[in-house]
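A.,

Following up on our hallway conversation. Structure tokens first:
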């Protein structure tokens, strides 16, 4: 099963966080769990549709700490395994919020 794990912005990273995160990413990559990871531009573009009209609005839209700052796409055997990876991630990065959503489809 594939899961998209996203995290909201938090404190500025320091050298310890970079080191611990690099080890975590290396471990997930070596085990074949990690499919993709990356940071996201807080500006973004919002598309809103109503009937036949589509409105395009340039961001940023929320405070930096509320914006989704990064993501990881993982392939695991269960939801519980995805949650455990999320717990490990939160322990590394500290206070904040993450979301885990199952990805459907091929």
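Then the amino acids I'd put at each of the 106 positions:
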């Amino acid at each position: 099963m594939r899961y998209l794990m996203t995290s909201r912005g938090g404190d500025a990273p320091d050298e310890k966080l970079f080191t611990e995160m690099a080890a975590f990413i290396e471990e997930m990559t070596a085990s074949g769990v990690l499919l993709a990871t990356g940071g996201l531009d807080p500006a973004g573009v919002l598309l809103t549709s109503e009937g036949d009209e589509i409105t395009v609005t340039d961001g940023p839209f929320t405070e930096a700490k509320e914006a989704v700052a990064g993501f990881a796409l993982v392939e695991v055997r269960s939801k519980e395994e995805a949650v455990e990876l999320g717990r490990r991630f939160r322990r590394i990065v500290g206070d904040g919020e993450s979301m885990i959503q199952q990805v459907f489809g091929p």
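The chain has two helices and six strands. Curious whether your intuition agrees with the design.

B.
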